[in-house]
Amino acid sequence: MKPPDWKQCTEEELWKYVAWHLEGAGISSVLVGGAVVAIYTEGLYQSGDLDMVPDDLQRKRLEAVLGEIGFVPSKSRYFRHPECRHLYLEFPKGPVEIGDEFPIEPAEMEVDGRRLKILSPTDCVKDRLASFIYWGSRDTFDQAVLVCRSQGAAVNLKAVRQWCEAEGKREVFEEMAKALG
User: Fold this and answer.
1) Strands annotated E in the chain
2) Is 158 inside any structural domain?
3) Are 98 and 126 in contact (CB under 8 A)?
4) How many domains does the chain contain in total?
């Protein structure tokens, strides 16, 4: 796979490049968080980082594969490419959960013969609402609304409502539904 234009690549371009190489090395991962919002809103929202939950967090193996494509670990838990100053990678420990919902079945995209995993539009909305519910982040509520508007029927609002109810936060769904008009 051809490397992205490091100086101006999007979250989607960087995700596909990194996830494709990880998958080729036998490391499956799921893209979660704000980068998913950036992808589903076609750049209307920009994240700045990519949170990829690997199926098996063997740090040395991960570092080796990322090193082969030019990424270096920072002093903290992040990885950066020296030519890509606007985006960085983070690999939170799994499994992928959204509030009390587990397991999460990610969506898949085929990229150059490999299946890459990403939260579905519906799970992306739930993920952003979970950040709003549990950390009080108004920005993530707004991101959930933005994904709903951008993805339309791809977001299963009935499933989002049921998830909010299971989390004991029906009022959050009602507020979102009101924001959507």
Assistant:
1) 29-32, 49-54, 72-73, 78-81, 84-90, 107-111, 114-118
2) yes
3) yes
4) 2
